[in-house]
C-alpha cells in the first residue's frame, strides 16, 4: 500500500511578512516532513498551491491499496511548520498507510493533528458498466 503526503510549499502564515521570512512556511514544513517521512517509508511531494491559503501550511494525505484502489484521503491545515508538526503528520500518514481503507480511528490520532483536519475525501465509487 502506498501513502503520500502532499505539502503546499507556497503556504505563508499571516505573519510571514512581519517575520521577514525568506522561505515560505510551507517549504519549511515540507522539508521537515520529507525528513520524517523518508524514515517512515511514506512518499512525499510538493505542490505550489492546494488552495487552502486561509489555513496556511496545508497537507493532503492520500493512498492506494495493493490492488490500486484509492483510500479515504484527508486535507489538514493550520500548522506552523515545526518539526513537531511534521512528526505528527507523518505519524498520521503511517496510520493511514496501515489502514486497508485509509480510515484512522480518532483514538489513535497523534495529538499534533487533532484540530487540523479540514476535510475527508471519500474514494470514488467503483462503477460496473
Shape: globular
Low-confidence regions = none
Largest sheet report:
5 strands, mixed
**From the alpha-carbon coordinates, what is the Rg to the nearest angstrom?**
15 Å
Summed up, the domain count is 1
Distance between the termini: 27 Å
CATH fold-type name = Glutaredoxin
Strand tally, please?
Answer: 5
Order of helices and strands: EHEEEHE
CATH class: Alpha Beta
Mean pLDDT: 92
Protein name: Putative metal-binding protein
Organism: Pacificibacter maritimus
InterPro entries: DUF1636 (IPR012863)
SSE arrangement:
Layout: E1 2-8, H1 25-40, E2 43-47, E3 59-64, E4 73-76, H2 83-98, E5 117-121
Parallel strand pairs: 1-2
Antiparallel strand pairs: 1-3, 3-4, 4-5
Helix pairs in contact: 1-2
Pfam family, one: DUF1636
Protein name: Putative metal-binding protein
Organism: Pacificibacter maritimus
Explain what you see.
The chain is an alpha+beta fold and 129 residues long. It has a single domain (2-121), classed as Glutaredoxin, CATH 3.40.30. It has helices spanning 25-40, 83-98; strands at 2-8, 43-47, 59-64, 73-76, 117-121. It has a 5-stranded mixed β-sheet, with helices on one face. The longest helix has 16 residues, at 25-40. The radius of gyration is 15 Å and the shape is globular. The model has no long low-confidence stretch (mean pLDDT 92). This is Putative metal-binding protein. InterPro entries: DUF1636.
